[in-house]
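Hello, quick one for you while I still have it in my head. My current little project is about how a certain protein chain folds up. You're getting the sequence in one-letter code plus the fold written as tokens. Would you mind checking whether the tokens look sensible for this chain? Here's the protein in full, and shout if anything looks odd to you:
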Amino acid sequence: MTRGTAALQDMASPVHRAQVENLYVEAMLLADEAHAAFAAARDLGRAPRDALLQVSLACESLKTTTRLMHIIAWLLHRRAMIAGDPGAGPKDSAAHIGEPIDADWSVCERFDAPLRRIVAASERLFDRIARMEAGWTARETPRPVQALLAQLEARL
């Protein structure tokens, strides 16, 4: 069995599949929560307020939404790979979470606590997925027994 075949079988494992599904549900709930919270903050912003704060709110709303869209796209691509969709492969650009889109916390500290919590939760979720992806794609070091089997196979 080649490394690529083993990786695809690992990806289809029930544990891997459950991780992706659970993260997908978490990401979708957080996206709904972010949408509602930022929409409410925008509605409150119709009253005369700090214009710079309103622009900052719009920028951080876009960053948070983009971060969540990257997460959801990555999870949907993983789901497609697990399902064996021939159009979804490990070398596709969607197979990699990419670089994080960091929030500007000097701006976010002026937001209400619920908005700060949502922005922070989206950053934590992105970091979790980036670490998970790194772990799933890291080269596995051969175990001693695998090295012995390879030697035996080479002699036969």
